[in-house]
């Protein structure tokens, strides 16, 4: 079974509170999502392996550390996942970015892929899938499967908020994918929204209804 990491850092929790506030406008909402994503990236990459390198300072040569070999990839689920990309890139600017687009079939209610563009060497990278809201888990689980179908083996899922139902589904269907959260909420309501949640992340990011 995969691990679930709920990030308790005070700065992350403080900023999640701002996102939850219905009075927070789109401009501030976008900025806070970017900031939380950057802080989450810092925490989620804590265990990346390091190697020794030699550098020359203005004074002398010395041993230093560099990330060992593994390359990173960032794959937001359209459209709300786009809001998390810049925060990640602020810390790992060399990461390559792919995109996955899904829609829900009105008859079967199953997620259908309409767009999937990954880095050419995605199968050699550690991939972070970005999805602000992990509600039922259907879209995230489908996106992860689409990425696996492209040969990717190392995947992590990063979300701002999650409901227990969504976490359980992803763990059941992808027990090899660790999940990183800024907050784990109480439940889903009858409309499939996370409670207490923050509303529709895409609408709040881009000012749509």
From TrEMBL:
Cofactor(s), by name: Mg(2+)
EC number: 2.4.2.9
Activity regulation annotation text: Allosterically activated by GTP.
Domain Phosphoribosyltransferase: start-end pairs: 6-208
Binding site for 5-phospho-alpha-D-ribose 1-diphosphate: 79, 104, 131-139, 200
Pfam family, one: UPRTase
Gene Ontology CC terms: cytoplasm
Source superkingdom: Bacteria
Transmembrane segments: none
Molecular-function GO terms, alphabetical: GTP binding; magnesium ion binding; uracil phosphoribosyltransferase activity
Annotated catalysed reactions: UMP + diphosphate = 5-phospho-alpha-D-ribose 1-diphosphate + uracil
Pathway: Pyrimidine metabolism; UMP biosynthesis via salvage pathway; UMP from uracil: step 1/1
UniProtKB keywords: Allosteric enzyme, Glycosyltransferase, GTP-binding, Magnesium, Nucleotide-binding, Transferase
Coiled coil spans: none
Entry function: Catalyzes the conversion of uracil and 5-phospho-alpha-D-ribose 1-diphosphate (PRPP) to UMP and diphosphate.
Database matches in PANTHER family: ADENINE PHOSPHORIBOSYLTRANSFERASE (PTHR32315), URACIL PHOSPHORIBOSYLTRANSFERASE, CHLOROPLASTIC (PTHR32315:SF4)
Protein name as it appears in the record: Uracil phosphoribosyltransferase
UniProt lineage: Bacteria, Bacillati, Bacillota, Clostridia, Lachnospirales
């Amino acid at each position: 079974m995969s691990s679930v990491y709920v990030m308790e850092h005070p700065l992350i929790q403080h900023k999640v509170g701002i996102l939850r506030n219905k009075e927070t406008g789109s401009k501030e909402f976008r900025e806070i999502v970017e900031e939380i994503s950057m802080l989450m990236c810092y925490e989620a990459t804590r265990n990346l392996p390091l190697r020794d390198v030699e550098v020359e300072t203005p004074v002398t040569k010395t041993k230093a550390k560099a990330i060992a070999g593994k390359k990173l990839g960032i794959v937001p689920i359209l459209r709300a996942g786009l809001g998390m990309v810049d925060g990640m890139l602020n810390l790992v600017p060399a990461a390559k970015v792919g995109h996955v687009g899904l829609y829900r079939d009105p008859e079967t209610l199953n997620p259908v892929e309409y767009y999937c563009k990954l880095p050419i060497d995605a199968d050699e990278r550690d991939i972070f899938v970005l999805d602000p809201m992990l509600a039922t888990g259907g879209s995230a689980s489908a996106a992860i499967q689409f990425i696996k179908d492209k040969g990717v083996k190392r995947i992590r899922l990063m979300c701002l908020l999650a409901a227990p139902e969504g976490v359980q589904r992803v763990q059941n269907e992808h027990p090899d994918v660790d999940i990183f959260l800024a907050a784990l909420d109480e439940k889903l309501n009858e409309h499939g929204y996370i409670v207490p949640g923050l509303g529709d992340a895409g609408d709040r990011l881009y000012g749509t209804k």
